[in-house]
Recover the amino acids of this structure.
């Protein structure tokens, strides 16, 4: 039986374990979150392949070397997807639809920021370039509120080693439907629509991140949306990818991507989701063994 290293012991770990075990792949935990990693001793546990590269990339490099691990989504895939601005630039260059977006480096002069904001209608979305789960995303309703948000970003960038001191100004698409589309090995593998409750919308909430309380319901996605997600994965060269689409009545855009997507309930995916995922895992291990 093939042994798969999964570094996060959360929803994805639990949901992968039984379906992959039925396909002769053991899901085992390889901790990448601990504060210590012994570098001068032979690891007790062995693995054949890793699922997705850890978010802590330095730990990931050490664990990859200690366990001689290939990854279904390797370091390059994770870093590519994490760079929101880079993703949008690459997709735009490939002719795929993306939101109107400007990348900004912190700190920025107020006059330059005001000039950049003139390209947008208010409100405008402000996104840190490298965060996940909606962390730090804000909506500015006018220039004063935008300047205030950016002041806070400057403080964070000054006093914490954030690494990436860029953020995005992005058009706000009111009432857009929010989809997370899964692509496995280049092909559509299912989708969910992320929705806020009526009470949340009435309270003024607008972000659809599940980790912030939105619900994810399985949907039968239109063929053109499926193809857009597949073309996105192809343009980025990522084998296992979550693609976030925003759809209004007259357009659909790729908002961002996630190379470390949470696996949802199997009922929200295509019937052969786990067959295809297992095949991708096995092929990754085989290609590594063959060199």
């Amino acid at each position: 039986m093939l042994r798969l290293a999964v570094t996060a012991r959360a929803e994805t770990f639990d949901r992968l374990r039984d379906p992959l075990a039925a396909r002769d792949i053991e899901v085992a935990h390889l901790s990448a979150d601990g504060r210590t990693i012994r570098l001068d001793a032979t690891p007790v546990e062995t693995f054949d392949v890793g699922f997705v590269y850890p978010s802590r990339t330095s730990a990931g490099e050490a664990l990859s070397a200690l366990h001689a691990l290939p990854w279904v989504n390797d370091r390059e895939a994770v870093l590519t997807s994490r760079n929101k601005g880079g993703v949008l630039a690459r997709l735009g260059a490939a002719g795929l639809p993306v939101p109107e977006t400007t990348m900004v480096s912190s700190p920025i002069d107020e006059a330059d920021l005001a000039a950049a904001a003139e390209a947008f209608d208010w409100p405008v979305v402000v996104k840190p370039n490298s965060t996940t789960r909606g962390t730090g995303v804000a909506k500015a309703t006018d220039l004063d509120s935008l300047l205030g948000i950016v002041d806070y970003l400057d403080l964070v960038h000054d006093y914490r080693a954030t690494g990436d001191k860029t953020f995005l100004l992005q058009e706000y698409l009111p009432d857009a439907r929010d989809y997370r589309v899964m692509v496995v090995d280049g092909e559509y593998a299912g989708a969910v629509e992320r929705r806020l409750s009526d009470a949340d919308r009435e309270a003024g909430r607008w972000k659809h991140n599940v980790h912030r309380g939105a619900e994810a319901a399985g949907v039968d996605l239109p063929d053109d949306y499926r193809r857009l997600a597949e073309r996105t994965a192809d343009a980025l060269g990522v084998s296992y990818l979550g693609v976030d689409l925003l759809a209004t009545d007259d357009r659909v855009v790729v908002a961002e991507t996630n190379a470390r997507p949470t696996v949802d309930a199997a009922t929200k995916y295509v019937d052969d989701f786990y067959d295809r995922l297992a095949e991708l895992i096995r092929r990754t291990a085989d290609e590594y063994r063959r060199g």
Summary: DSSP finds nine helices and 13 strands in the chain.
